[in-house]
Design brief:
Elements lengths: L10 E4 L5 H12 L3 E6 L2 H13 L4 E5 L5 H15 L4 E4 L14 H26 L11 E6 L2 H5 L5 H21 L4 E8 L24 H6 L9 H11 L11 E4 L10
Parallel strand pairs: 1-2, 1-4, 2-3, 4-5, 5-6, 6-7
Helix pairs in contact: 1-8, 3-4, 4-6
Length: about 270
């Protein structure tokens, strides 16, 4: 596992960290030596994850609210500054799905997903800029890292998923642009594009009336088509995120790393 050791403890902020991939990343950063701000829409689950980290001997604080609101992302960055003195790693993981075929997709369906996934990533990066960037002419003693959780949906597209696929494609474009913009500041900006990752609200069996998840009968079919022979796990994503936050990735930026065990396209139509 990549270590994040330093004379002063590094500080990470993970959005959507109350469950699934975000929770795994928060735990992985903490176990590698970082203090972590656990951010989630649901304050109760964020507090629970922070409590787990503290109980394991780590350092954690919480922030809550929708990242679609710039006041929320400003506030979560302020938590990192107030509690831990700064920010070194920003992991944009918050997201949701609201699947519809395009001709049945309402403005509300589109706006909800794009606002959380794409605007939320933009909001978080903009809010964090003042702590991640250094004054012009200053050479920082370490690279700071932004890791955006994209999706293979944003790379290849998925039927019935145009809002989410478009939003994640936007996250990839934002990643590439920001890598160029912030590279001179010694800030690495990369994206992870997971495939089917079990144990998340986006990939669980969808209950009647639920707007997230996958049709129950599709899940075994998807898993059976993964060349590596198993579904991905939140820990798989956390391992890669920890590497992207480590000094070993200092020369890697502007990349979208597909993490899908060889399965490029998930069909849920």
């Amino acid at each position: 596992m990549a270590e994040l050791t330093a004379p002063d403890r590094r500080v990470g902020l993970v959005t959507g960290a109350g469950r699934g991939i975000g929770r795994a990343i928060a735990h992985r950063l903490a176990s590698a030596g970082a203090a972590v701000v656990v951010q989630d829409l649901d304050e109760e689950v964020a507090a629970a994850v922070a409590g787990e980290i503290v109980a394991a001997g780590g350092a954690a604080a919480t922030a809550a609210g929708s990242v679609a609101d710039p006041a929320v992302t400003d506030a979560m960055v302020e938590v990192a500054e107030r509690e831990f003195g700064g920010l070194d790693f920003l992991i944009n993981n918050a997201g949701l799905t609201h699947d519809r075929t395009l001709h049945r997709m309402s403005d509300a369906d589109w706006d909800l997903v794009v606002d959380v996934v794409l605007r939320g990533t933009f909001n978080a990066c903009r809010s964090a800029a003042r702590l991640l960037r250094v004054p012009r002419g200053t050479v920082p003693d370490h690279h700071r890292k932004v890791v955006n959780i994209a999706s293979i949906n944003g790379v290849y597209g998925v039927a019935g998923n145009a809002n989410y696929s478009a939003a994640k494609a936007g996250v990839i474009g934002l990643t590439k642009s920001l890598a160029r913009e912030w590279g001179p500041q010694h800030i690495n900006v990369n994206a992870i594009a997971p495939g089917y990752i079990e144990g998340t609200r986006l990939t669980r069996a969808r209950a009647d009336g639920d707007t997230m998840g996958m049709p129950e009968d599709v899940i075994p079919l998807v898993v059976s088509k993964i060349p590596i022979g198993r579904a991905g796990t939140p820990d798989d994503v956390a391992d890669l995120a920890a590497f992207l936050c480590s000094p070993q990735s200092d020369y890697l930026t502007g990349q979208t790393i597909e993490l899908h065990g060889g399965l490029e396209i998930i069909s849920i139509a």
